[in-house]
Amino acid sequence: MDNYTDLSNMIDPELKVSDQNDHIEEEKFLNNPIVTVGPVTKQYLKSVKNYVTDGNRFVFSDGSSKVQISVISDEIIRVRMAPQGTFLADFSYALQEFAHEITSVVIKETPHEYLISTPKVTCSIAKETFLISFLDEKGRVMNEDARPMHYEENVQFGGYYVYCSKVCTDTEDFYAMGDKPTEFNLRGKRLVLWNTDTYAFAKNQDPLYRSIPFYIGLNEGRSYGIFSDNTFKTHYDFAVERKDRTSFWSDGGELNYYYIHGPQMIDVVKRYSHLTGTHAMPPMWALGFHQCRWSYYPDQKVKSIARTFREKKIPCDAIYLDIDYMNGYRCFTWNNTYFPNPKQMLDGLQDIGFKTVVIIDPGIKVDDNYWVFKEGKANNYFCRRCDDYFMEGNVWPGRCQFPDFTNPKVRTWWGGLFKELVETGVDGVWNDMNEPAVFGSGSFPDDVRHNFDHHRGSHRKAHNVYGMQMVRATYEGLSKLQKNKRPFTITRAGYSGVQRYSSVWTGDNVASWEHLKLANIMCQRLSISGISFCGTDIGGFTGEPDGELFTRWIQLGVFTPLMRAHSAGDTREREPWSFGEPYETICRKFIELRYKLLPYLYSAFWQHHKYHLPVVRPVVMLEPEIHINHYREDEFTFGEKILVCPILEAGAVNRKVYLPNGTWYNYWTQQKYKGGKEFVISSPLDSMPIFVKAGSVIPEAPVMQYVGEFEPEVMFLKTWYTDKEATSLLYEDHGDTFAYKQDIYLEKTFRVKGSNGSFTMEQKMEGLYTPRYEKYQHTIYGLPFKVRHIEVDGVEIKRFAIDEQGVLEFSSTKKFKKIEVLA
Ligand code: GLC
């Protein structure tokens, strides 16, 4: 291999000309223009000279630069480029520990290329051009370089700007990338990843709070993903500069990306989650309704809000304390005037079933009489500038210094700071302002130094992971302090992998119909970007919603994994009763629906945690090939079985929905539809179109005012007839402990099957948990025959009821193996 002929003079001459254009266009787009000295210095990889192999890793060289191709699994291939031939230390905050699942890897050499193949994917490296492409098992190109990877020296900071440019075909669309407030399909967008505090962000504003360098390409029904694990400011161009190209480039670090094979979009997301992890099982209460406000104080106000929920019988599990609970906004303190006895208040809230979540920001007030500042200063835990001055900036408390959360010692210290809050009875922690946000300047200057888990770097490298490492420290601290209880955290900033430590919300949105639409899209996008546990400020953070907008937002909120209402301090009151009737009754009805669906949502989280499936799934994921005219970016499935079509227009009393192929039932009316086309569905304010897939078994709980209010005596199983076969899942465990990690859980699979005059349902169970209820209360919808006979495990049951619409009701033991419903 070493004697490979140098063919660099065969590079397409057009390529050299286009270097110039690339450079100009990319530079125009940079927020901080590159300081270039002299002529353009962009260097492209030249022809391959040789390669060496080491197990599943192959390192190709063009004589000076090196490219490492490693096979991570049968479907995931990693590409790294070292401009001067030396790879950086291999370290990632994004990746979790994962198994390398590889069946076999072979490398083959042809006259023009090297081919590295697993049973599913082939990576081709063209000898003359160093162009890299990925092919499926049939040899069809999934993704290919448009230009060789390239780089350019950064004369200001050292290191390189690194670039990758891919071919984009006319039929290719792009998805994922975290929280971007724009159309769901990203084709035609230029995006930047640089965590930014964006109060009252606008549609198309970019960048926002999170950096998720992962996109999914979908081309004629076949999908792949590209995850570029580079924490520097990173730029994406999805066919804007040139219709036939998608590019991404970072302001430093290594070009280091993972090609993730599909071809199903859901498999790309699963595999991305295999790399970066999933949320742990949340405590069940965290899936209930959360009420937040900037800020509820003093303590009497907090108590009265909580009491009103109970008096009005509107279910709610969590109440939040925003920054005013603290003494002068000093983290880990209480304002003694507003909260003279926090323990008593928290106990009182607990007595009526409320969990309390408190905000903690990263800025620590510079105050030599404040214990947190003193400890941080004494131990050298705060960030410093390049010349050793402390990084100081103004946030809520005034002058602040900021812990370096990329230092493992600092994270341990930070985690321990929650001791008193936990002992006082705080149940969850909300990390905000962790982009990090600084008043005036926006964020830290580039020269701030970070430990980066002993891989030192400037803020350019650490900025996008700062918030993630903060919430990681919080999560790990709470895990220790709350003993065998699952921590609940919520964060604003994040980087790929943040889902291992926290839920997220989409930040400071606006009370407008446009933002309701964005909320819907952003949660779908986060969900397919690995962040299933996400939500938006219901009602809009800033501005005033009217009763209709608030109610429609609550309706959407039922189907976002995190359901939290929040509002800014200068707005009118914003609780579910604030708008009077009919809004209050409708909000109650929908929040009750959320509580009924908790066993279903909890099972969807299990499917996320264990099987890496997103909780919210856009319709395009179900039917990647659907005709573009039918595709509605505003619809999604909640879990696997429920199709949600939120109402996003003022005054709407109906809406057009697209039902994917198959049979669907209207959740409210039980009307049956044959999918694959559009329907107009009536949806006055007290309704919203929700459909259930035929063959689904949806577990529902009795309505409670909060999780654990009482021990239910039955589990409701609602089943929708199918004349085919279908399976559904019900997951159960203690709801708040880590026992599930020791297999103390129960995973039930229901298999249903309908045919002429008979409908059967089988149950299989796995795991060691025993729920307390003894019975299932069954409801079966859509049976196409008159029921005469029902058997549970071979024994006829006589007690059943059928209403005029043919809906069947009966009960069975929770342990049944087979139920037969016969004509
Ligand atoms: C930020 C947060 C918001 C919070 C406010 C005060 O704007 O995004 O949710 O209420 O700060 O802490």
What is the beta-strand fraction? Answer: 25-35%
Can you tell me the CATH class of the domain at 4-89 and 104-276? Answer: Mainly Beta
Question: By CATH's scheme, which homologous superfamily of the domain at 4-89 and 104-276 applies?
Answer: glycosyl hydrolase (family 31)
Number of strands: 53
Mean pLDDT: 94
Helix content: 10-25%
Report the biggest beta sheet as strand number plus sense, adding barrel if it closes. Answer: 10 strands, antiparallel
Bound molecules: alpha-D-glucopyranose
User: Could you say what the CATH architecture of the domain at 4-89 and 104-276 is?
Assistant: Sandwich
Would you tell me the structural class of the helices and strands?
alpha+beta
Indicate the overall shape: globular
Separation, N- and C-terminal Cα atoms:
73 Å
Query: Might you state the CATH topology name of the domain at 4-89 and 104-276?
Result: Immunoglobulin-like
Instruction: Please compute the radius of gyration using only Cα atoms.
Output: 28 Å
Q: How many H/I helical runs?
A: 13
Plain-language structure description:
This protein has 823 residues and is an alpha+beta fold. Among the domains are: 4-89 and 104-276, glycosyl hydrolase (family 31) (Immunoglobulin-like), CATH 2.60.40; 616-691, Immunoglobulin-like; 711-822, Sandwich (Immunoglobulin-like), CATH 2.60.40.1180. Helix content is 19%, strand content 31%. Strands 1, 6, 7, 8, 9, 10, 11, 13, 17 and 18 form a ten-stranded antiparallel beta sheet that branches. It has a nine-stranded parallel beta sheet with strand order 32-31-29-26-22-21-20-34-33. The chain has an eight-stranded antiparallel beta sheet with strand order 2-3-4-5-19-16-15-12. A hairpin with a 5-residue loop joins strand 9 (132-135) and strand 10. Helix 6 (408-416) runs parallel beside helix 8 (459-481) and helix 10 runs parallel beside helix 11. The radius of gyration is 28 Å and the shape is globular. The termini are far apart. The model is unreliable at 1-39 (pLDDT under 50). Alpha-D-glucopyranose binds next to loops. The site of alpha-D-glucopyranose has 9 residues, from loops. Belongs to the glycosyl hydrolase 31 family.
